[in-house]
Amino acid sequence: MLKYQLPHSQEVLLPSSAIIEISGLSHTYPGTRTAPVQPALSEVDLAVQAGEKVALLGPNGSGKSTLLRVLMTALKPDKGTVRIDGMDLDLQADQIRKLIGVVFQKPALDIKMTVWENLRAAGMLYRIPRAQLEERGRSLLERLGLSQRRRTLVGALSGGLARRVELARALLSQPLLLILDEPTTGLDPVARREFWRQVETLRAETPMTVVLTTHLLEEAQDCDRVAILHQGRVLAYDHPGHLQQSIGTEVLQIRGDDLQALGREIGSFLGLESRVVDQSVRLSLSGPTSLDALLDRFGGRIRALSLAHPSLDDVFVQLTGEHLQAEEVER
Fold first, then answer.
1. Residue 296 and residue 298: Cα distance in Å, rounded?
2. Which has the closest alpha carbon to 214: 199, 200, 229, 233?
3. How many angstroms from the chain centroid is the CA of residue 75?
4. Does the pLDDT value for residue 23 go beyond 60?
5. What pLDDT was estimated at residue 261?
6. Rounded CA gap, 64 and 133, in Å?
7. What is the domain class of 2-243 according to CATH?
8. Running DSSP on this structure, what letter comes out for residue 81?
9. Burial class for 178, CB neighbours closer than 10 Å (0-12, 13-18, 19+)
10. For residue 116, which of 135, 88, 85, 138 has the smallest C-alpha distance?
11. d(Cα 261, Cα 12) in Å, to the nearest integer?
12. Angle formed by the axes of helices 259-270 and 291-298, to 10°?
C-alpha cells in the first residue's frame, strides 16, 4: 500500500493496484557555465488510479513537465521509484513505453506529410501490423472527425485539427496511459473545447487513464483529481472541489491603502489569517461574516471589496502566496 498525505493532513492508504505509483521522486538538472544547478522535483509522492483523469497544475518551473518526462521514460530521475501498471520504470522502461501514448507540448508531426502518412509512420515505430494499423487509423480518424482530411498535408491544417491528428497518433498503440503535455497550447477557445470533447468521448469508449499538465484552471477543474505543484513539490492532491472547500467557503478580497497594516487589522478583527497578494488583502472565510460590521470599522480605508467562492487559483494562492501565471514553455 502507498501512503499519501492530503491537504488536511489525513493519512490515507491508496491501493497498490494504482496504475501509477510514484514515491520519493527527486531530480536536479546539472548546472552549466551560464546556468546554475536547477532542482526540478523534490520528494514527490503520487498515485493515479486506473481510468482517472489527473491534472498537474502549476506555474512555469513548478516541475510539471519534468514529472511527465519521467513518466514517459524520457528522463531518468536522480532518486525515487516509479511503477506503471505494476512495472518498475527503472528496470522495465521498454515494456512501459508500449503502454503509453503521448501528445507533446510542441508539435511532433511532419508538416510536409499527409495526415495518413504521419499515422502510418507512427504505426511503423510502434510495429503495428499493416492490417491493424489500417483498421485503427481509419477508426481513429473517423471518431476524431478527420476522415475527410486523410490525404491533407498536416501543414495545411488549422491548429485545432493538427492537434487532433496528434491525438490520433498517440492513440494508435491503444495505450493504457495517455500523457498530454500542455496539449491545448496555442489553440483558440473553440478548438480547445473541441479537443477536450474528443478526449472525453474516447475516455468513455476505452479503459484509458489520462495525465496532463496545464496552467489553465478550467482544464484542471474538469479532472478527477488535481496535483498542485510548486518549486518541484506536490503541495496538494485531491478532487478540485475538495481542494477548493479545504480553504473555506468564500474568499474575501479587499483593496485599500497601506495593505500590510490593513490586512493585519482586518485579520485580527475577523480572527482570520490575512495575506497580501497582488495589491489586495485576501482572507479565506469558513463561515458567515458580517460585511456591514467590516465596512463600519474599516470603510474609510477600503477602496474595493469582493466576495467569491474559492477557485483553484485561490487554493494556489493560499498554499504559496502567488497566483498561477500563464506560461509558454516549461523545462
1. 6
2. 229
3. 18
4. yes
5. 93
6. 32
7. alpha beta
8. E
9. buried
10. 138
11. 40
12. 140
**Top-confidence residue, 16 or 177:** 177
Cell of 226: 488535481
Q: Where are the beta strands (DSSP E) in the chain?
A: 2-5, 11-14, 20-29, 38-48, 53-57, 79-84, 87-88, 100-103, 177-181, 209-214, 225-230, 233-238, 250-256, 274-277, 280-285, 302-308
Residue type for position 266: I
Please write the tens of the pLDDT for every residue from 64-98.
Answer: 999 999 999 999 999 999 999 999 999 999 999 99
Among residues 212, 237, 183, the alpha carbon closest in space to that of 3 is found at 237
Give the relative orientation of helices 159-171 and 189-205 as an angle to the nearest 10 degrees. Answer: 20
Other CB atoms within a 10 A radius of the CB of residue 34 amount to 5
pTM of the model: 0.84
Q: Which fold has domain 248-309?
A: Alpha-Beta Plaits (3.30.70)
Element (H, E) at 245: helix 240-245
In the chain, where the domains are located? 2-243, 248-309
At residue 328, the 3 state secondary structure works out as coil
Same fold, 2-243 and 248-309: no
Region of 189 please: left (phi>0), alpha (psi -120 to 50) or beta: alpha
Could you identify the residue written with the cell 506555474? 59
Residue pair 152/115 in contact (Cβ under 8 Å)? The answer is yes
Nearest to 225 by CA among 237, 216, 213: 237
The amino acid that residue 170 corresponds to is A
> At 10, which amino acid appears?
Q
* Distance between first and last Cα of the chain: 32
